Amino acid sequence: MRVAGTRGVWSYYLPVELVMALSMLYEIIEWGTTLVVGGELGAAYLGMQGDVWDAQKDMGLATLGACLGMLVVAGINFRCQRDFADDFLASLRIKIATPLGEVSLKEYGSTQDTSGS
Questions:
Q1: Neighbouring C-beta atoms of residue 97, cutoff 10 Å
Q2: What does the alpha-carbon distance between residue 20 and residue 109 come to, in Å, rounded to a whole number?
């Protein structure tokens, strides 16, 4: 929350997403290492003991642990903060009511084209 400057829902979602991404990156590095090493040594390094779903189970357990950790943190914050629900809901509201898309891009482009070319 302090490093990314997030609030509400996003302060609980981003840590889970980071754990999921790092878990996936580790499994890809582990897979790449087994391809480079190859053979029995690669299989021994991988350590899946014949389980073809080992990588998915590892990533699933990392995600489950991150979710449980964020639930504990959310429970503590809910208990200690009076405005927890308001902060949580405010983070889901749309902040800018004006339309975005082609209209905004045209306006943005016309204000940026001051070079005269």
A1: 5
A2: 37
Residue partners of 90: CB distance under 8 A and separation at least 6: 7, 8
Cα–Cα distances in angstroms (integers) from residue 111 to residues 97, 106, 108, in the given order:
21, 9, 5
Nearest CA-CA partner of 60 in 116, 28, 16? 16
Amino acid identity at 91: S
The pTM assigned to this predicted structure is: 0.68
**Residues near 86 by Cβ (< 8 Å), separated by ≥ 6?**
none
79 membership: H or E segment, kind and range: helix 54-80
> What letter represents residue 51's amino acid?
D
What is the tens place of the pLDDT at every residue in 71-115? 999 899 888 888 888 888 888 877 777 766 777 777 777 766 555
Which residues make Cβ contacts (< 8 Å) with residue 46, sequence separation at least 6? 30, 31, 34, 54
